[in-house]
Design a protein that fits this description.
Length: 493
């Protein structure tokens, strides 16, 4: 980041130039994290969809690599996944040198293998650790009859009890997840459909089926992640999830919201406007799913004022599955590898009590990029919080607040910089919940054009982009109509 590229994130993945959206083909291989992603090599808005590629050792510092698979007139490369084919079951590598196999969506153009507009699943492989990719000759490997224009987003997981791969895909505009199985990654047989529960929204996209251990027990459950657009909890694009069982054929969600229930009854991975298409890193170490998500929303992503790049990934997260009071719930935290980097710096701390007013935290907390741990003890106050990236007179800024009576955590970006690029850039996002001990604990990852607020140890997350003035770096806490005790810890990044 610099005054001439003021919204370039410091600790989030971006491409040096041009448009990016969904993360694709996330895989951990030979000690390196690979992120591929929907990328336009020729422009700063969606189009010419190709797979860009970046690598990282620690999930914070990324190095951009050459484009892995480039769009052509006959085929764009939409979202998909990568697995390491350890036993060379596909035959696309060798026993000595097992291939990386990508399953992706072919979106056909002129003179493609299928009619223009059709979408089907294809395979590609790499025998040099992910640097170069060859398309499989028999593509597509999976097509629907009749051919469909919204059949996409393959994500593959290994199903040990049956010793086969399971692929989730969507027929996006029919709000259906379709499951298939294969023993060689090239021939796929239909297993079942998953539909009719949870928020329906417009399109269903980028599904994933994950097996997870239940925290503090030996039980395991299956989790379905699903992106929907529009119809997310914060408007536009959003991500919901379902917890249940998978018997090798069918995924059965338990305690899922009815399709016509209020959106609040569905389970959401994030309550902000900018978390979409997240999927997990295949083979990630550490035993917990590590998720990378796109920090964008189709409502306005094409109009955000950044140049020559547009689009960033959220901080990699790890998921934990816990038994909540009524049903199983996911908790999100910053992925361990990234956390280690972000927590490395020296911590600055300040404890203070504010009554009916605000207090500037001073230059120690004036970093554009910082990891803040904030604890609020609301005492007599009605509402309290923190104002970040504000002007010297504190008349603007990103406002994160908690209101006691309603138990509402709110992230308000309505007066936090440039926002006139789209009428759909929604002003604020919120989630309700009541801390058991009355103390609100927020872990806030602030970067130059985004904030990720992890509330109460990751019970809820709010991820939002915003575009503040470069020289607005103020940070203040405030307490309204009463007294609040604050403990603020921050590490500049
Ligand atoms: C989700 C999505 C996917 C598709 C890709 C195209 O954001 O629409 O369904 O594969 O983006 O770029």
């Amino acid at each position: 980041p610099s005054a001439s590229d003021p919204w370039r994130p410091a600790v989030h993945l971006t491409a040096e130039k041009n448009w990016l959206n969904d993360p694709n083909g996330l895989v951990y291989h030979d000690g390196t994290y690979h992120a591929f992603y929907q990328y336009n090599p020729r422009g700063n808005s969606w189009g010419n969809m190709s797979w860009g590629h970046s690598t990282s050792k620690d999930l914070v510092h990324w190095e951009q690599q050459p484009v892995a698979m480039e769009a052509s007139v006959d085929e764009e490369i939409f979202s998909g996944c990568i697995v390491v084919d350890t036993n060379n079951a596909s035959g696309l590598g060798s026993a000595q040198n097992p291939p990386l196999v990508a399953l992706y969506t072919s979106a056909y153009g002129k003179n493609g293998a299928l009619p223009q507009g059709a979408q089907a699943q294809s395979a590609a492989y790499s025998t040099d650790g992910g640097t170069t990719w060859q398309k499989h000759r028999g593509n597509p490997v999976l097509n629907l009859e009749p051919t469909n224009n919204n059949f996409r987003d393959p994500k593959v997981t290994w199903y040990e009890p049956g010793r086969y791969w399971v692929m989730t895909t969507v027929v996006a505009d029919a709000q259906v997840v379709k499951l298939f199985k294969s023993t060689d990654l090239l021939h796929w047989d239909f297993l079942s459909d998953f539909s009719g529960v949870g928020a329906q929204g417009g399109l269903w996209e980028v599904p994933e089926l994950l097996q997870m251990s239940v925290e503090g027990s030996t039980a395991r459950k299956w989790v379905m992640l699903l992106s929907i657009n529009p119809g997310g909890i914060a408007g536009g694009s959003g991500m919901q999830y379902f917890v249940g069982e998978f018997d090798g054929t069918r995924f059965m969600a338990e305690d899922a919201a009815a399709p016509d229930a209020p959106l609040q009854e569905s389970q959401w991975l994030d309550y902000g406007a900018d978390y979409y298409a997240a999927n997990s890193v295949s083979g990630a170490p550490g035993g917990k799913p590590v998720l990378l998500g796109w920090m964008g929303n189709w409502d306005y992503a094409q109009h955000v004022p950044t140049t020559p790049w547009r689009g960033a990934m959220a901080i990699p997260r790890e998921l934990t599955l816990v038994r909540g009071e009524e049903r199983f719930e996911l908790r999100s935290g910053i992925a361990a590898a990234a956390r280690e980097v972000l927590e490395r710096g020296e911590e600055t701390s300040k404890d203070l009590t504010v009554s009916s007013g605000s207090e500037d935290l001073g230059t120690d907390f004036a970093a554009r990029t910082q990891l803040i741990d904030l604890e609020l003890d609301l005492g007599t106050a009605r509402e309290a919080g923190i104002l970040l990236r504000h002007s010297p007179d504190a008349q603007d800024g990103l406002r994160i607040s908690y209101e006691k009576d309603s138990g509402t955590l709110k992230v308000d970006r309505s007066n936090a910089g440039t926002s006139n690029f789209s009428e759909k850039f929604s002003p604020y996002h919120q989630v309700t919940g009541r801390p058991a001990d009355g103390k609100v604990r927020l872990r806030i990852l602030l970067d130059t054009s985004s904030v990720e607020v992890f509330a109460q140890d990751g019970q809820a997350v709010v991820t939002d982009t915003f575009f503040p003035d470069w020289d607005h770096v103020g940070a203040s806490v405030f307490s309204m109509e009463g007294e609040t005790a604050f403990a603020v810890r921050s590490r500049a990044l």
